[in-house]
């Protein structure tokens, strides 16, 4: 039996009235959570492939666990995907059933055979039956789609045993505890948030806090209503949460101004490299920040730093379910728990995955990730540089919100920069100069282009994982970059 379902069953018996999930409109006890899953399960009797297209809510979590209980392949549909991306995923995965809180959008993207209005944990939702070309059934428990730098999502097949192994390993490493409050900040369709902020708390018996994005003050992929965010943090008083680097930067600034609660025990940061300056600022501000590293193909988390094993700048040590080695070219390879291959590709996943990421181990076994192999820049002086390193140092500066660095086929390292606030030319130049003064001479930014809009998932300039879609950014700003030469 599933470890997640076993834990849910145990908790509804041992702690029936204790709060399991808190949302903006609904609160579920462990008994109510279990009952909601049992109640929804018959609705999936005729389902092979379930598309879950909902904003963060207790209903999303109930539907996700119901898919496990019904032995149905769950395919989270990211609401931040463009209509073109969503349409591709629905057709590519041959999804026959969708549970959604935005049926009108789905009805424009697929042929709907029937529509049923339901309630999930007291929240209205819609079940749509779709026309498919075949009655496809996958052995995978979940297929997660990654948007990548090209913007075309690709399905990664994941087994339940593998996901539960990662969740169990992670729960042990971070010492997940009952009575704690785990806050969901990122979209639950992101695999990391799904596993670390839902499965881990269920295994530990911790409370899952899943507010509406509006309550948190989060607007889209790049904007935050700071007063609303501060108010939510102080009202919720979370113990654990996962943040991308841009939200960590906000947390650090708020902590320096003593605007945050003292409830944090473990703040995980991942999705993109974090500059050492930002990590040092987090330490000084008293925030318990720990980096991690993972990939969808490895069922999310591979390594994580912990209070017992932490070295600034590293992503920690491999978790028990994973083995990591560095090849002669500096590429990271992972074995142990892995995915079942990509959807529609006949080759199964190998026992060892070449990640495409570059890194190294220090003498004490801490892993440092330096960038992507295919992004590596070779300068005219023969220096190998990972643009992710320079980008992380740039965005650590308070005046710089986002950055994408380019250098191949260019006479100098060039950055496309999104300011954090309205800046004039001299102020932005001063910020870049300050960052350059911390870098070796061969890695300094010589030229820059001021972006005319933030990098977002909506404009395809940001991947779902929060990293710059550099091919698209370079193409968009090609004229400005070329004019610098």
Task: Describe it.
The chain contains 15 helices and 27 strands. It has 485 residues and is of the alpha/beta class. Among the domains are: 3-160, Rossmann fold (3-Layer(aba) Sandwich); 376-484, GMP Synthetase, Chain A, domain 3. The protein has a 9-stranded mixed beta sheet, sandwiched between helices. A hairpin with a 3-residue loop joins strand 1 and strand 2. Helix 2 (30-40) packs across helix 3 and helix 6 (160-173) packs across helix 7. The radius of gyration is 22 Å and the shape is globular. The model has no long low-confidence stretch (mean pLDDT 90).
List keywords for this structure.
485 residues, alpha/beta, Rossmann fold, GMP Synthetase, Chain A, domain 3, nine-stranded mixed sheet, globular
């Amino acid at each position: 039996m599933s470890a997640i379902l076993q834990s849910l069953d145990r908790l509804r018996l041992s702690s029936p009235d204790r709060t399991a999930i808190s949302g903006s409109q609904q609160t579920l006890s462990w008994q109510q959570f279990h009952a909601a899953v049992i109640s929804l399960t018959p609705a999936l009797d005729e389902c092979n492939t379930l598309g879950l297209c909902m904003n963060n809510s207790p209903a999303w979590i109930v539907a996700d666990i119901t898919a496990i209980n019904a032995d149905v392949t769950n395919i989270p549909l990211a609401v931040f995907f463009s209509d073109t991306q969503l349409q591709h995923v629905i057709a590519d995965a041959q999804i026959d059933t969708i549970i959604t809180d935005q049926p009108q959008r789905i009805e424009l993207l697929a042929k709907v055979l029937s529509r049923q209005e339901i309630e999930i944990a007291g929240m209205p939702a819609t079940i749509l039956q779709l026309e498919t070309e075949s009655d496809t059934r996958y052995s995978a428990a979940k297929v997660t789609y990654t948007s990548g730098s090209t913007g075309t999502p690709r399905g990664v097949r994941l087994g339940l045993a593998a996901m539960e192994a990662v969740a169990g390993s992670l729960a042990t490493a971070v010492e997940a505890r009952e009575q704690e409050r785990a806050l969901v900040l990122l979209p639950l369709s992101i695999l990391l948030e799904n596993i670390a902020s839902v499965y881990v708390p269920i295994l530990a018996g911790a409370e899952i806090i899943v507010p509406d994005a509006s309550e948190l003050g989060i607007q889209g992929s790049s904007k935050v209503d700071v007063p609303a965010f501060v108010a939510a943090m102080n009202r919720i008083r979370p113990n654990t949460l996962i943040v991308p680097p841009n939200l960590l930067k906000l947390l650090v600034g708020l902590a320096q101004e003593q605007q945050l609660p003292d409830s944090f025990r473990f703040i995980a940061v991942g999705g993109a490299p974090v500059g050492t300056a930002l990590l040092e600022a987090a330490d000084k501000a008293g925030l318990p920040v720990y980096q991690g590293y993972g990939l969808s193909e490895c069922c999310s988390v591979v390594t994580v730093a912990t209070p017992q094993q932490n070295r600034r700048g590293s992503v920690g040590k491999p978790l028990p379910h994973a083995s990591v080695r560095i090849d002669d070219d500096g590429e990271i390879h992972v074995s142990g728990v892995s995915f079942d291959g990509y959807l529609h590709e006949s080759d199964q996943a190998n026992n060892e995955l070449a990640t495409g990421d570059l890194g190294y181990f220090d003498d004490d076994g801490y892993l440092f990730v330096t960038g992507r192999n295919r992004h590596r820049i070779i300068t005219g002086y023969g220096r190998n540089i990972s643009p992710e390193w320079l980008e992380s140092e740039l965005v650590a500066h308070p005046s710089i919100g986002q950055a994408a660095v380019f250098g191949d086929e260019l006479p100098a390292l060039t950055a496309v920069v999104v300011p954090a606030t309205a800046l004039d030319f001299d102020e932005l130049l001063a910020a870049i100069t300050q960052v350059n003064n911390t870098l070796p001479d061969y890695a300094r930014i010589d030229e820059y282009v001021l972006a005319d809009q933030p990098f977002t998932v909506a404009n395809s300039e940001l991947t779902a994982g929060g990293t710059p879609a550099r091919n698209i950014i370079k193409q968009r700003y090609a004229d400005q970059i070329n004019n610098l030469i």
